[in-house]
Records
---
Amino acid sequence: MVIHLKKGLDENRVSALAAELKAIRLRENGTQVLVTSSSLLQIDPAIELLVDEYFVCRTDIQLASTEYRSSKRLVTVGDLHIGGDLKQTLMIAGPCSVESEPQINTVAEFLVGLGVRMMRAGCFKPRTSPYSFQGLGLKGLELLAHVRENTGLKIITEVKDATHVDAVIEMTDVVQVGAKAMYDHGILNACARSRKPVLIKRGFGSTLQEFVQAAEFVLSGGNENVILCERGIRTFEHKTRFTLDLCGVAYLKEHTNLPIVVDPSHAMGFAYGVPDLARAAMAMGVDGLLIETHPNPKTALSDASQQLDFGEFVALYSSLPMIAKAVGRRMI
Amino acid sequence: MVIHLKKGLDENRVSALAAELKAIRLRENGTQVLVTSSSLLQIDPAIELLVDEYFVCRTDIQLASTEYRSSKRLVTVGDLHIGGDLKQTLMIAGPCSVESEPQINTVAEFLVGLGVRMMRAGCFKPRTSPYSFQGLGLKGLELLAHVRENTGLKIITEVKDATHVDAVIEMTDVVQVGAKAMYDHGILNACARSRKPVLIKRGFGSTLQEFVQAAEFVLSGGNENVILCERGIRTFEHKTRFTLDLCGVAYLKEHTNLPIVVDPSHAMGFAYGVPDLARAAMAMGVDGLLIETHPNPKTALSDASQQLDFGEFVALYSSLPMIAKAVGRRMI
Amino acid sequence: MVIHLKKGLDENRVSALAAELKAIRLRENGTQVLVTSSSLLQIDPAIELLVDEYFVCRTDIQLASTEYRSSKRLVTVGDLHIGGDLKQTLMIAGPCSVESEPQINTVAEFLVGLGVRMMRAGCFKPRTSPYSFQGLGLKGLELLAHVRENTGLKIITEVKDATHVDAVIEMTDVVQVGAKAMYDHGILNACARSRKPVLIKRGFGSTLQEFVQAAEFVLSGGNENVILCERGIRTFEHKTRFTLDLCGVAYLKEHTNLPIVVDPSHAMGFAYGVPDLARAAMAMGVDGLLIETHPNPKTALSDASQQLDFGEFVALYSSLPMIAKAVGRRMI
Amino acid sequence: MVIHLKKGLDENRVSALAAELKAIRLRENGTQVLVTSSSLLQIDPAIELLVDEYFVCRTDIQLASTEYRSSKRLVTVGDLHIGGDLKQTLMIAGPCSVESEPQINTVAEFLVGLGVRMMRAGCFKPRTSPYSFQGLGLKGLELLAHVRENTGLKIITEVKDATHVDAVIEMTDVVQVGAKAMYDHGILNACARSRKPVLIKRGFGSTLQEFVQAAEFVLSGGNENVILCERGIRTFEHKTRFTLDLCGVAYLKEHTNLPIVVDPSHAMGFAYGVPDLARAAMAMGVDGLLIETHPNPKTALSDASQQLDFGEFVALYSSLPMIAKAVGRRMI
């Protein structure tokens, strides 16, 4: 249950009430909010006197649910806006990894030339093998900071574990919680405290329920700036790397109030299918697309098979505005 | 390996050769074709003299593969065409089941009014429970035959097992091999013999490889008129009925030469998500859409939750042509 | 709901009642039984007068459920018994396919020598590729009939579609409904009519609910002799062919009244893991094991990698009685 | 490739070589070891002079593979030993969570009374919902430390993210890397540095390849004391909480050199199936069992449905030695 308390309540009273209800306290738009377990379905009359409004949610998807708040939340990244009722779809593009200064600068220039406004690139790569390229780490973050300074591109990059979460929060515009880190409370708690926009990727073995509950950790910790990103789930089908769950996207659009981004690159795992899937996501009216592109995918140090080369990216990019328009949206 | 034999070879020689290579014989466009296991990678010089051309395929996806034939096959249903290089997307719509004469006539009239040209409706329902509605059977087929006669609508209906496959072949325009019957050799063999257009639905537990191999049974039996239909696979995610595998659709477009239809209704299981998914499939440039619609979904005898009511269908239907146009196609 | 009617009711009255309740009629141990949809939770007082006893089941698992009948059903195959309270585990072994008369005779002799009493071997192979060995068909059935005559071995063989189900029913002791045919109503209905023991393999994409509902088709058609066989489900893990679902076996033991057989050969797909998994199933107290063994697995025409050679089979076979004893059972 | 260098090589030379081969350096039993990517298949003759022995591994499962080392590794926890050629199966039992001092003392006393030597209990619970009990944290660790002091029980407890990994390493005998933290490099790296025994639970969405690669991070970081724990994977089947992958256990036994523990409690999710599955794992000859038991499961603050009560645990526990004996092992 999400409870909006009446204004002007004594602080001690609120604390006592939170303890009594085993509730999490936060503030939304100036209102004091208590969030209890969803198993609480009714309010005691004694408590009701302190309550302005309350919302019963069917599961522990509460702050993120349309049962609590039916309009879509708006996440602000400087002068960019994601979600809300803006009917915009943000293109986020860039290489899998920061590999070197020339590589990342080449990509940045290319994207700026096209009018893309947010760049992705990984510094801390959550590789499954200790014998693969692990990313440039802090040095990569610094290269991205230079790109931001020089180009005005907004930067999103991934945090892979709690040991470097503070550095990523400090040095990027949007923190990406990777699919393998979706359950990481060390990361989620740090993000909750920071108020920095957070894009949470769905774990490839995670249910939609768990996915939104990860967002719920950040929201209930006081950070409203949460974006969900579907990037493919693991199924029995192995001809493609993962299975992009667009049924899941339809579910999230219906049942949650969070902006939704789709990453077809990781789902497909092969460049040939990425444009079609990106167009599919656009036709569904999602709030953003996350596409991997690299100056020379064949030589990429990670995810070589799935990154678009610049020609392929341009072809895709130029095909999207008409689809956006067909569904009443605009690509930014 | 697919082998095109030289013209004018003696029949006995061809038979002997087929036996020697353990090959299946068929005819494509007047050419004698032998299909061996894909493990045959080279041709004996003695045999080469009889051969016009041959195609090595990496797996037992052979006749359906782009390695054998890179252009998309065209399936003809009377005056309708599916696939080929027509850049058309066929709308196929109708209720889950034929329930009664008034019900099916109401739907048919509605569809004709909109300009839809092919109707779906099930007579033999492959229900998982013996205690649910099992369909009207032959009586349903007759009702559909009347609809065809009265309206000119093309009819597609499902065969659930080999005991009634001949009746379905005789009385419909396109035979639908249902997801639960995808491996049924009794059905596939009957379809192969008949030359009637066949739409094969992917089994929800079937890999893409197995899916196309089911088509390969029909193709190698001499029936070229095969359409593939993706309708969702079973995954760990249960908030939606199945998971529509659009990565799989991207794979099929790249690696096979068969027309592809997408059925978002069964994948999603809930009407609210069907329009978005239908638009996504349209943006991918598929050859057809299969959508369930019912005059009054709440009272439907099967699949009540996923059928669009007429208002919802019209809203979806009218949104599709612009997306088709955005990707260089036309909805028919 | 399962309803036991009072004895001596007028036939017309029973028919009328079945029609009114949309119930399936059958006879169990001389009692007239009506089975309605499980959504019927209460009985009309007017009807109650005709009813001896009734059982509310939570889902359309009804006749197979422990809610209806808590003791395990006993299936009789000549002088062999499976299930009931016998605390026996039946070994069923043999090659994947009947390949030739010498091959099948060699296996039969080997098994008889060990004291194994039921042999498996496929004649109609539900291959996924049209370019693979499809089985010997009717000729294979005849070879199996000779084996039975010569050795007294009971025979179980698979039916793959409805076109040959009558032949299989006639010529074997137990009809195996294969994993790919689990939803085939043509087969299930023929088995229901025949009263022949039926072993239903779980579809690799089928839920436990659907699996037991397939049995429910046979049971509600009047054939009580149904055995369930777990043989692995399809998951994201591809290092093994399938994933043997022993959690599912625990579920079936708790919630159904049907004998349970486990097939580790198809689940694992590699001979090296079969003995360990067979021992695991034995330790769970299942009613039977289905193990593939072949005189020379490397040359087998199907499933070459998973069949035990005779040495491996003997090693496994001799290790099982002690485990059976440790859990209070006996291997037969 | 795993390379054993000749003894007595100059330190600088080894460093240069490691850099040249992009190899990870470690020491095993006094030997200097370099581990390169598995894509390295041959050694340069110039380098060969420095090499004592080298092992080509087919994938990035290297140090853990039987291709590198065919005998099973032995992990030592004080006077307890897991793995090696001891033919012992260690029982590890305890509640899901430390809930209070009386609760954990009651369990400890119960286990000591039975002769169980290692206790599990969670302090940092990786709950999917922020509105559920999150564990006692450091206070729980202290309660466990008292139990160890008072009873001599070895303690295993879970680390959920990198923020508290050092505390867990310091205060327990075995560090459990939970299923949701399997990819957490912050945790894996800390475990690698510590030399403390580590039990890694397979992520429920993780392939066997990735599972063993997580172990590879710890092994290649210089900590040989790694135990693998199968605890169920996520599949389409939801009648049980997860699907225990015993095919996977058979694979791990065949292809890796690490001790293997099976946790049937989390896989099943329901107490009724745990004893059967524990017996199954014992019959497979695994190195340990991890079973949840609680004085009063119904009141448990987490995992209430799957914990055995003491009576159920005793019944299971007493049934295991005979099965162990039947497969040539001993339960400790």
Note: The two ends of chain B are 36 Å apart (CA to CA).
---
Amino acid sequence: MSSPPSFTIEAATDALHAMRAARPLVQNITNYVAMTISANALLAVGASPAMVHASEEVDDFVAISNALVINIGTLSPTWIEGMQRAAKRAVSLGKPWVLDPVGCGATKFRTDFAVEMSRAGPSIIRGNASEIMSLAGAAGAGGKGVDSTASSDAALEAGKALARASGAVVAITGETDYVTDGTSVVAITGGSPLMPLSTALGCALSATVAAFAAVRPPFEAAVAALAVYGAAGAAAATRVTGPGHLPAELCDALYVVDADMIARYATIRVVEEVNVG
Amino acid sequence: MSSPPSFTIEAATDALHAMRAARPLVQNITNYVAMTISANALLAVGASPAMVHASEEVDDFVAISNALVINIGTLSPTWIEGMQRAAKRAVSLGKPWVLDPVGCGATKFRTDFAVEMSRAGPSIIRGNASEIMSLAGAAGAGGKGVDSTASSDAALEAGKALARASGAVVAITGETDYVTDGTSVVAITGGSPLMPLSTALGCALSATVAAFAAVRPPFEAAVAALAVYGAAGAAAATRVTGPGHLPAELCDALYVVDADMIARYATIRVVEEVNVG
Amino acid sequence: MSSPPSFTIEAATDALHAMRAARPLVQNITNYVAMTISANALLAVGASPAMVHASEEVDDFVAISNALVINIGTLSPTWIEGMQRAAKRAVSLGKPWVLDPVGCGATKFRTDFAVEMSRAGPSIIRGNASEIMSLAGAAGAGGKGVDSTASSDAALEAGKALARASGAVVAITGETDYVTDGTSVVAITGGSPLMPLSTALGCALSATVAAFAAVRPPFEAAVAALAVYGAAGAAAATRVTGPGHLPAELCDALYVVDADMIARYATIRVVEEVNVG
């Protein structure tokens, strides 16, 4: 019998070391705004990013990747085809993939596609409170619908329902982050109020989650990635006076993040009993 | 009878405060190069950016946006469809939209589409001297044709003609910026010679103009946005020795720009009598 | 009889001055991740970038450009058409163009297209060791096939074969850079181990090579550009503690790079006899 997952700073640090040792190739099918910061965050933390989206080559590329992130930020029909095909390929090859349902709830086109992808076997879904609530509601999972002022606390029940309906681990990020598999819940703190003022840092987090999913099961990967990224973000925020230099400082922090930085700037707390054996 | 528009540092500051209080959702259909800095500039100054371009969802998204910017920088046929549809929707819903005719004059494809969009009811057209002269000429508005060495002064007559022909307020940016509705002209100074050496800062300015257009009529919005952005750019330039860190410093300046910074780094001057009642 | 090409720091400096004096318009058909840093590097070093890719306007735009770079990073069918047409137009007008075969070897789609473009008359092909070895092998030029751990030394023979097969000068970048026309070889040092940890700096180098190709023959252009960029990168690396601020520092260094910086941070060495007359 495997030991139960451990949700601690030590476990997150171990996952970081394992990820850096593996230097996973992370395929990003992501939005135009998020590409540069996603690639830079992955490189800085120790993974190897690739931006490959054309349906003509995703089958081949997923096969050589260690993890995949699909982010629907700047969605268009030609990209949808590549996303669908990449997700299918990842599932068939048993590769972990992360769904970032950017802007779910804003338009029917976007919400419908987010629902479709949530049913395509993602390992992890990461979004903010509004996106997770909207996706849970639209997917018929029992969520409460869109609320643009939703906190991650308010979205927790929706996230649990979405996790049960999709089979994915759900990560809801905000002032406090929550990760849930539908029954167990882990809360992570870190980050900075400046982070939402620099574009696509949430998208780059989803890419980082994918890197960790290459070396850990989804629940542990998401918790570790959120703690590592949150710690780096909080450390970076101490070195800036506004959002302008935050992406650069975040990458510098991801480049050096270690046990001390994680312990100093992040917390991990099991909110509800973990019953994964 | 409404009071005449006031083109002063105080009015620009008031517009900034109103914009921040409203936190307008600004939809960007912009070029790939401009996306990240446009989003970051909007977030820093206090607006809420979204990058949404697919024709499948622009009708829905324009409906929830407070302003729209259409920038033709990296133009292609699939994007044209979304731009046409978004502009039409914005006009029908009475939402302000800004046209940035990037590279107008460089190719027939680009010039023709810029002309088409200038006739689709933009609230404001913002470009450099060459773009405005080219667009005015191509639109049959009486401009003087392309001149790659054109200063914004030289383009002023073309800009006035373009404003009369299109019904839009025209903002011509350069060493001195001019805003005109075809009869009145306001001149704004600010910025730095380093700004043209960092890509897409003009595009991010157009996005900022859209944010102000969500809370002020087009003429006043353009003047206020140019003063605020120009002041932030000039302040940012004092903190760098080259163009490399300018985008980050610009965002930090936009994050804190206030009456003092605007008064210190920008000027607003009515050049020709304002006869808007 | 023209004098033989000179591969020295002085010649590189002269090329830099000539390029800045000409301020060449460099058309970039490049990947989404590379666009911003490519534009910023070109602006900083003294060239004028434009990002134009639509097949509807590339014929017109190549005609007004001084050099072209085609980078296959985020490849898709609609972009392929513009790339094919732009390359054909550049060749017919005698304009220099640079091929950056990003990710060649990773998928059949990508490798096939890289081979096709290598046969479309590029002036210069710039890639890392793996890309050059893969392209040489796939093009039947006698390379050794893909090796993801390949050093630029190991790829030198493949690069020479590729140069002979394609007629292009081949630049292989890594810890030591090599430039070859198939018989002669010049080695350049510079740069920093941090550079591969910031995304798309190799792509921005290819754009810089194109700028130099506007004012010098391909072999001399590639050597000069690699020395200038490598020196700026090495100088920039002395000012950072991680990869985060490297793009900004690189641009600041490119903005001021001169004979002293090149001499201090780069070396140029003729490895095999230069027999170009």
Note: Confidence is low (pLDDT under 50) at residues 143-148 of chain B.
